[in-house]
Amino acid sequence: MTTAVSRITPCPPGFSDHVYKVAHGVEVPLRVWPAKGRDKAPWLFWIHGGPGKGRLVWGPVGVKSGFIAGKHVVPNAWVVPAFQQYGYHVISIAYRFIPHVGLADIVQDCVDALAWCRANLPSLLGESAVDLDRYVVAGDSAGGTLSTICGFKFEPKPKAVIDVFGVVDLLDPHFYTAQSAEKAAMWGKYHRAREDTELARICGERDPSKAEVICPWDWELPPNMSTEDLRVFWGTPEFTPGEKDLLRMDLMKYTGKVANKFNILLRKEELSPDLFDQKRKEWSPYWVVDERKTYPPTFFLHGTADSAVPVEQSYRFAEKLKRLGIPTGEAYCPDGEHCFENKIERPEDEGWNEYIVPCMEFVDRHVRG
What we know:
By secondary structure, the chain is an alpha/beta fold. It has a single domain, classed as 3-Layer(aba) Sandwich (Rossmann fold). The protein has helices at residues 79-85, 103-125, 142-153, 181-185, 196-203, 227-234, 243-258, 261-265, 273-282, 285-292, 312-323, 352-368, and strands spanning 16-23, 26-33, 41-47, 89-93, 130-140, 160-164, 298-303, 328-333. An 8-stranded mixed sheet has the order 1-2-4-3-5-6-7-8, with helices on both faces. The longest helix has 23 residues, at 103-125.
């Protein structure tokens, strides 16, 4: 399940686009795919990860691009087909990226998106078409981190959480260890002749009016993909990639090499070492559940060879939830890398029955039960 796949199909049709908030002049959007032909349908609140997603999966190099880039317009390949098959509406949200906002701001974006959904989905989808209280929150990678945090933050609570290889313990040294020169070389060269000192300076910018909410991945940028093909792939006929996207990809490569992403997310420069450790723990679902003692039913999807987010993150959180008596489901792909599930798009694809069906049956049981 780690081989790259070249099949690229456009985002699922039938969506509508909306802006759920404007923050410091920045519009933050979401995309809605209605369920097909069911009254009082449940719904999925999807939070995307980094941009190494879509209908193409990169090989065994961990994609550490979350929080700094990504796209809400194309959820992971299986998401819309699977949830629509089970009769769910799908809502995929954008959020603002670092460095111009921090983790607290990003989580607030998620909270505001939920409020928008609860206020607007009935009029958008039909008063009898959606059951606002029967919803799932899910996400991959950075979105997995956010979805597990939202399992605590959201009110009313989701009926289930899906954590797709998300970071749940921010104290893990893995995320603060700079890469060796050999591994750093795997990120490739910067798009422009930039020094690391320039990118370090940009990582220190804190003006929220400069925040971005969408960014293509390298393989979606010219010359790898034409602007016309990208517009079709994303379903965004007016989007034009530019210098800001090249810069963001260079920032992604830089932060991946020096492992400073969580320092930026948590504003480490404003904190003493003790307060930084405290803040890392306060934002870690793995540790927060010790105090709360309760959490929504949760399903974990993860590859055992994930080099971006070690599978132990899911193992440990799942075991803790089970010890607390919280319904927990798990599906681990042997030798699966980061994004392993993103080549699973249809019921006939390898991995659908092994990973997607168990996830959906677990979720649907708790949502409809």
